[in-house]
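Support request, please re-run this one:
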Amino acid sequence: MTDALPTPAYVFDEKALRARIGFLREHLPSAKLCYAMKANPFLVESLASCVDLFEVCSPGEYRICERLKIAPAQIVLSGVYKERADIFRIVGQCGDKATYTVESPSQLELLSDAARACGLRLPVCLRLSSGNQFGMDKAAIGRIVEKRNELPLDIEGIQYYSGTQKKFEKIRKEAEMLKAFLSELKENYGFAAKRLEYGPGFGVGYFQSDAPVDETALLRDFCALFEDLPCGLVLEMGRFIAASCGEYHTKIVDIKYTDGMRYCIVDGGINHLNYYGQTMAMKLPYIRHHKTNGDAAENLWTVCGSLCTTADVLVRSLPLAGAAVGDELVFEKAGAYSVTEGIYLFLSRDMPRVYVRTEDGSLVLRRDAVSTDKINSKE
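Re-run finished. Output below.
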């Protein structure tokens, strides 16, 4: 099915993606699922009928939702920077069907202005900071909740996200903190939240050295943390949904032996592939080797990309049997962030093609190769 696939390319598996959502639905039965589309916007179309909500963090992400005709009721408009013209346009289109996050007092004022201009009460979630530039502290949220009746906004609840690849103990502490904060808001201001939108930041095992995780047990223990939550729970996830549903395909275009080291040069590179937690290509991700020749002795290879920098090393000490020009290397668990975090413009190389493998196994081209030389020069 991928024998003639032009490389480099991403392949995102729709069947695996929907199976992933089914697994999460089964083991998180009381929660709504919100897909953080920054993880991989190419999956939005496939997920439109599978998830409850999409976290949309920029005007560009919103335009993607527009083109795909995502229902306003599925949109949570987030982002640390909300530009006035964009907000007024989006509120004019989505009105009180979408949910809007508030990350600062100035965003509160902006959304209030937009609500008054449209004659609507907009549903909002107040983002609680985890100690960085995002969101507001508890005192600021308390002041907003206290004057909520003066606002043209309906405060639905709290949004909280502190990072990715978190250990369960940190998640447990956050759950206790969030429940306590909701109780404080009820006790101090008579405010009963309708929802908690929480990004748990569950970990993804990208490397063969990572300890295996029993996800069924993980989600069971997670659900127990929120059994006594006094409101609805929305789980905002990107990596945990998408990572396992995508692959990155690249071909070996040259091999060489230099000072006793074996090198494979591939037609892709670090401008296309990004594993969270990788350090100088020392960790070994999950890779399949599609060979063009027969059996041969296994040797250790350093796999390098096609960029003119010594940093372009995808993996060191990769065991390969009979590596040869024309072989394909398939990097697994590339469904989240690589397609959007790559340093695409470096060296003016083409951006990879993007394919989706549909439920029937066929490959559909979602984006052809894109030349970047015109972006990097005067027209």
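The longest strand covers residues 246-258. The chain is about 25% helix and 25% strand.
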